[in-house]
Amino acid sequence: MTWLKEVLGTEKAIIAMCHLQPLPGDPYYDFDKGMDYICEMAKKDLLALQEGGVDAVMFSNEFSLPYLTDVKTETVAAMARIIGELMPLIQVPFGVNVLWDAKKSLDLAVATGAKFVREIFTGVYASDFGLWNTNVGETVRHQRHIGAANVKLLFNIVPEAAAYLANRDIESIAKSTVFNNRPDALCVSGLTAGTETSTQLLQNVKAVVPETVVLANTGVRLENVEKQLSIADGAVVGTTFKFDGKFENQVDVARVKAFMDKVRSFRSNMR
Question: Where is coiled-coil annotated (predicted)?
Fold first, then answer.
């Protein structure tokens, strides 16, 4: 049994993304609508995801485009306010993802009581955001320093819109990441949000680290969820839950329910 059962309540867990609108300091922040509007949109998405039956949610500043790798204080403060206001309504385990800053994700997790964070913890990349470096040793020490030792770390090992500077295959990356860092999960992604994760890639990663939780991180849809979950231990799902399956839209509860009905049927057939 993996930690997914203990922390999220089930194996083959579905972690749903609650994407936050552009925040203060972001290029596309709407000054006229302000923070109240952002909180209201987050509330609608959270309630739709929970009504649809997801196992967990992850709050992310998904619309803080283009992303920073050293996130500003105002972003974390805004995310903390939103989650704080939603706290009485949150009925499932939740995590956070401050794109793309591992330390600030952990800071937000401690402030809000999040159970997990997803981040780019390791590697050096050539990315759309410039040269992208990490320092996992420093990050994990920061995790312990701020009292976040119980926060699960979901390592994204296929960064979106980026490529490793070193010429290494995904199997080598997965094996060394697990050996050196003891991640709670590895997230395997497509190129961008909504792009299907290769089942071959999932299979290759799971084969070399069979004792580690492996999550399909992008592009899991109603049509492919059974195939993805037949390999992965769970999935992070965002775009397909939205109206018309479009990244920029709000969550459509009917799409969530149809998806989760199929997931529950798949889990029942596994027993």
Answer: none
